[in-house]
């Protein structure tokens, strides 16, 4: 494709002036769903989007198979999250290969890629609840049911806020209006999510430190290590999103795809296989609640 477009960063046309990234090798299509600039801040890499689609498709098959095999219903949100990743990266493939200016592709990839970790985090919250029931509720600061539903609700609220902010950013860009308010909405949702997951990590650390002897006796050391590593990786991804949004549109974190690849894609793609190798259905059990015998032992130990 010939370089017929205006220079990157600034485009003029008539009396209007478009500020943002415009790919000089990809002329502005001017369609009804096209923003005047590429909202990503760059033209997305098709190779990265395709690689992500393939990897998450493989992980989806592996996790779905294990959820069915071990009848781990409490972990069924994990393959749902992976399905969201697949749809998001397919939309990103379309942005990269078909039309990077298309607002629909941008919103779809953002919605599904941002929402996917909510389902992955729900699976992580469920794992902690199952561990508390297995290792002993006396070691936890909060009951497992409270932990599960509080953090799922917190993630849901945070993500709805993020999606609303991202959609408004797209609309503002299309209308050539100031997106600052929309970016602040997105920032608020991310800030709350970082706070929420941070509190979850604190509760997890306190529980595991207090139950460390039971972890050794139960033979769950490797599983707990994998669980903690996956949790930290998902948290790292959320912190990146917060820093990116706080920097504002046009900052380095949002306009250089290397940061997206290493701090959004990579943490998630490393976290998911950890919980495939050490699957909670095989390592902890098929249900969050402890079997009757374990519950009786827990009550006796308290007495």
Automatic annotation (TrEMBL):
InterPro entries according to UniProt: RTA1 (IPR007568)
Gene Ontology cellular component annotations, sorted alphabetically: membrane
Annotated membrane topology: Multi-pass membrane protein
UniProt keywords, alphabetically: Membrane, Transmembrane, Transmembrane helix
Pfam families xrefs: RTA1 (PF04479)
Keyword Transmembrane helix: yes
Keyword S-adenosyl-L-methionine set for record: no
Entry's transmembrane regions: 37-62, 74-91, 103-128, 148-170, 190-208, 220-238, 258-278
Subcellular locations according to the entry: Membrane
UniProt-listed PANTHER family: PROTEIN RTA1-RELATED (PTHR31465)
Descriptive protein name: Sphingoid long-chain base transporter RSB1
Organism: Staphylotrichum longicolle
Lineage summary: Eukaryota, Fungi, Dikarya, Ascomycota, Pezizomycotina
């Amino acid at each position: 494709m010939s370089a017929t477009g205006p220079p990157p960063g600034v485009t003029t046309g008539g009396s209007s002036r478009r500020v943002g990234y415009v790919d000089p090798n990809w002329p502005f299509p001017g369609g009804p769903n096209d923003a005047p600039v590429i909202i990503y801040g760059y033209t997305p890499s098709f190779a990265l989007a395709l690689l992500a689609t393939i990897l998450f498709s493989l992980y989806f098959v592996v996790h779905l198979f294990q959820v069915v095999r071990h009848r781990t219903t409490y972990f069924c949100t994990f393959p749902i999250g992976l399905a969201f990743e697949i749809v998001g990266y397919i939309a990103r493939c379309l942005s990269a290969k078909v039309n990077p200016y298309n607002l629909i592709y941008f919103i779809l990839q953002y919605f599904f890629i941002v929402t996917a970790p909510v389902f992955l985090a729900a699976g992580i919250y469920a794992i902690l609840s199952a561990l508390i029931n297995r290792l002993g509720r006396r070691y936890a600061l909060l009951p497992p049911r409270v932990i599960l539903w509080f953090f799922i609700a917190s993630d849901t609220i945070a993500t709805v806020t993020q999606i609303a902010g991202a959609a408004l950013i797209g609309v503002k860009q299309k209308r050539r209006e100031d997106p600052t308010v929309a970016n602040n909405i997105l920032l608020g949702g991310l800030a709350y999510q970082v706070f929420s997951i941070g509190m979850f990590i604190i509760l997890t650390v306190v529980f595991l430190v207090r139950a460390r002897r039971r972890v050794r006796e139960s033979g769950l050391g490797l599983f707990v290590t994998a669980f903690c590593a996956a949790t930290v990786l998902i948290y790292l991804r959320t912190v990146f999103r917060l820093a990116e949004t706080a920097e504002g549109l046009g900052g380095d974190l949002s306009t250089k795809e290397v940061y997206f690849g290493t701090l959004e894609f990579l943490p998630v793609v490393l976290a998911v296989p950890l919980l495939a190798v050490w699957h909670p259905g095989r390592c902890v059990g098929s249900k969050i609640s402890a079997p009757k015998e374990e519950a009786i032992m827990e009550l006796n130990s308290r007495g």
